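[job 4417] fold queue: 2 targets
>>> target A
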Amino acid sequence: MLNKFKSLIETKDQKALLKKAFIFSAIFHLAAVIFSEGFHRPDEHLGIFRLMSYKLGNFPESELSWEYGAQIRPWLQPYAFYIIAKVSNFLGIVNPFFIALILRFICSALGFYTLIKFTKFSLQYVKELSHQNLLIILLATMWYLPFFHARTSAENLSLSFFILGLIRVPRLNQSIKNCILAGLFFGISYILRFQTGVMVLFAVLWPLVARKIQIKYFIYTSVSICIAIALSTVIDYLGYGVWTFSSWNYVYQNIFKGVASGFGVSPWYYYFTKSLAKGIPPYSFFLVLPFLWMWIKKPFHFLTWVTLPFFIIHSAIGHKELRFIFALGIFAPVMIGMYLDENKKDWYKSKVLKIFIILAVVVNFTALLISSLKPAYTPISFYKHLYSKEEQVSTLYSLSLIRDELDFYQKEKFEQVYIKENKLQFIESLKNENQEKWIFTSNFNYILKLESIKRCNRDFSSYPSFLIKEKFSKVFKRSKIWTLYKCKN
């Protein structure tokens, strides 16, 4: 009876911890939605927002990227965003920054919901109550999750739907409904980002291989995945205007034609070194080392079965970007809890380890604050300035080429005239001209020269005015300071 009462108290305490931990996490998720404007990688804008804008009639088909012509981009996400933007416009919301805020909120809310579900799902793999509580805290406070969930990227949404399918895998035997839902979520996850299909495949095969599912339930799940893919093909037709199979097109272009390798090739160990560096040491060690322990010590565990093939295939592909394996990070706290369960030593008594852990905690919360409260793409402030200006810029003379121009955020698209050569001569010519010109540069030396021209006034800068001084030239000589000047006639 005493043990039963103790268990009841522990359960209540854990529920209270879950509530507090995810209230804390919700605050940072909301902060990231509001403040982390822009994108993590340009693909988020070029591959999704431009397709949405094209469908809205605001972007010409001729200027879409090569992916559109090759029909390798699934339309599921851009079309969903198109519907949300269309509804927003109908309600009188036309400001692109506010529409982007709505989209970030939807993506973040879904990510936050799946994080709660995944945390509760993961508790079954960790036995000790104290280690379960640590697992809850780690998942609720991971520094990059609020930032990642606020991204309107395929990587983020694909992981969210994968988690919704994953938590149903142990219950596939219980009902056909679980099989259908798991299959639909897995299918959507695959369509959003084809690479996630590796995790989907092994997640669905595992209960069959482990003999924890009857073949009929495996068939129900597989058929449900195929239905999701078939529905996505219909959406691709609505997007492209012709029948096509974007997942095959993707494989053909990137694997057989080797297009992906044209964007750069990295060695097989890239993900190890990059994860340690970009995850921010010493915190990053707690993101990487648990996987090595899990894959070596528990090669037949469900979590190994799901994560290891995904990692191996991505390591074997020449073109690598860290965002491609972001989906793995969420599993690290679970593996830490499992490790502690099996290594019940007084590890916490080590002074060196204590210092290491304290540093990791400080790094984590510092990174959590910064990543949640600053723009994901700093130059977004430049586009906000252009959008809010009464006098719109039609022609922009650029001393620094604006790559991956964010058309979605422009009230009126400006023509960019890039001054590729004789830039100093061009700046000098401005002194004697009478023609009105808008000049853009992000080079500190060019900024200082433009400051010296009386008829050219600084209209915008991503850095405060007091820093734009000759005495700071050595400090900021490599910095990109987005600055706009208006040279009067």
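>>> target B
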Amino acid sequence: MVTINSTLEDIMQLDYTSREILLEILQKRQIEARRGEMARQAKISIKDYQSGKTAPISADEAVRKLEAL
């Protein structure tokens, strides 16, 4: 079974430069994964809006709802 700890131990066996490269790759992949999730949620929101499941609200109302989170 692969665990975070065993993975970290393996990574620490790499040289410093390789760990830096790995870190950069992981950060970029996380950014892309987040963008993908945001795009997926946006498509759902657009579909819900177009089908009438949601209604437009004012900017003030949107801010109030966000502040309440």
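[job 4417] complete. Note on B: The chain has one domain: 4-67.
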